[in-house]
Amino acid sequence: MSKLNLVLDFKFNHIALSVKDVANSIAFYQSIFQFPEIENTASSSNTRWLEIGEGRQLHFIPRPEAIIKTNKAVHFALSTPDLDVFIQHLNDLNIEYSDWRGTLTKDYIRKDGIAQVYFQDPDGYWIEVNNAI
């Protein structure tokens, strides 16, 4: 194995998800988070991108025949200082959420004091929203 002798500066760029229906996923994430759609500058494929803030992106790659299998431990997390407002937004949209243990319509306070909720997108991917700002 080679050793990297340079000090490199890495930044998070994007998350890419295989989805059955790209339009459905775009609609879901925009209704939940109101992320704006941005141009897919990589290709002329049916992959679509959303801007999630600070230059970070969420990519939806069409895979209509894909079998998506994941569990809650495989998730991505977003933070907001207004978790209570966000939870009310989930309730208004009739989006089922739970705490880490799976208790429905309950948030969870971690040992470090951070509150969090979990829910799934149309393809079964887990999303955590917390107040770790």
Features:
8 strands, Signal recognition particle alu RNA binding heterodimer, srp9/1, alpha/beta, globular, 133 residues, four-stranded mixed sheet, 2,3-Dihydroxybiphenyl 1,2-Dioxygenase, domain 1, 17% helix, 2 domains
Written overview of the protein:
With 133 residues, the protein is of the alpha/beta class. It folds into 2 domains: 12-65, 2,3-Dihydroxybiphenyl 1,2-Dioxygenase, domain 1 (Roll); 68-133, Signal recognition particle alu RNA binding heterodimer, srp9/1 (2-Layer Sandwich). It has helices at 22-33, 83-92, and strands spanning 14-19, 37-38, 48-53, 56-62, 75-79, 108-109, 115-120, 126-130. It has a 4-stranded mixed sheet with strand order 1-4-3-2, covered by helices on one side. Strand 3 (48-53) and strand 4 (56-62) form a beta hairpin. The mean pLDDT is 94. This is Catechol 2,3-dioxygenase-like lactoylglutathione lyase family enzyme. InterPro entries: Fosfomycin_Res_Enzymes, Glyas_Bleomycin-R_OHBP_Dase, Glyas_Fos-R_dOase_dom, VOC_core. Residues 11-132 form the VOC domain.
